[in-house]
Design a protein that fits this description.
It comes from Rosistilla carotiformis. Pfam families: AtpR. This is N-ATPase, AtpR subunit. The structure is a single chain. The chain is mainly α. The chain has one domain (about 10-90). The protein is built from four helices and no strands. It has helices at about 5-35, 40-65, 70-90, 100-105. The longest helix has about 35 residues, at about 5-35. The protein is elongated. The termini are far apart.
Amino acid sequence: MITMNELLNTGVPFIAGLALGGIFFGGLWWTVRKGLTSDRPVAWFLISHVSRMAITLLGFYFVANGNWQRLLICLSGFLIARVIVTRVLRTPETPRSPLTKEADYASHTR
């Protein structure tokens, strides 16, 4: 039987890792979309990078609370969030004609 203390020591860091990963990778996706069409892409990417890193590192610091096991659990949630965000935000591939596929293949250097 799982005790409340075990649940707090494993569940909370894992959920926090999922949230931190969602913020980090969702923010990265949003930044790329906005930054590529912006008049000032350097500002978008720089501010986003610093903000996402600060939020993530502070989150890891407070969640771990000096306990490396909690840090690893949080990190596992963070990495799983990466997979989830990547799959949820994946853009559908546009269908290409066989000629386009052949031209793409021919243009690659070997």
